[in-house]
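Shipment paperwork, digital attachment
Item: protein structure file
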Amino acid sequence: MKFVSYCLILLVLAVAISVLSWAEEKDLILYFDYEDFKGDEVVEKSVSKRNGKIEGKVVQVDGGKFGKAGKFSAGSFLDLDGATFPKDNIPTKAWSLLAWINVEAISDMAIFNARSSEPVWLVHPEARGGGNYRWLLRSNGNSTLFDIKAGKNQANAWQHYAGIFNGEKGILYINGNEVGAQDAGAKSSSTDWGLGARVGFNIDNNRPFTGLMDDLNIWKKALTQDEIKAVMNDGVDTFLSVEAHGKLTTQWSKIKAHQ
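Attachment content:
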């Protein structure tokens, strides 16, 4: 009888792993690992299922941080058709935008850009020509939540970028280390991408990203510094798996304690 009980518990835990993994993944709204290219698109692997349409020259190359990487030539980008992007998936009350980048030169380069129909330039995660990085968000009404410029931009070397908004402040991490933070001037960012969303080039065709990019992931929740480091070091897929199993281990310990 005890054996049967344990089998039932294991079955419940297996189902719970799937549920917890889904719970984590639903907050991951954009994920390009650059492992899969299909025709003129780069396959996108979050709940949004929004493949990036290649405009210009974005090619798959070896030597990424986790397998392959995307190599962007100047003026090239991935078009996400922001006007039709699922509105429920657009981060507003919390953001996490992470990517490994290896830029070819020290100049203004957009990692990602979106513009609302209001219009508002709502998000600027960038490597900057001034030798630093930038993390900016704006709300409806064109009010700037924060505009952080910090860290040391380096060319021809892999650098990990992480911009966070937790509803109270914006925080910029480079290579897992906090390099800048500002209190936010509002509780949420702009609510649509009506005038476009791109990877690697601003909507007005400025600040072209040139170089390599890997593991771009955007979440509608604020990751902690430990979570950022886990994604940075192990990749998104491993992070999601470890998070789900970690929570199940905790639950299993509680069950064992009550036997």
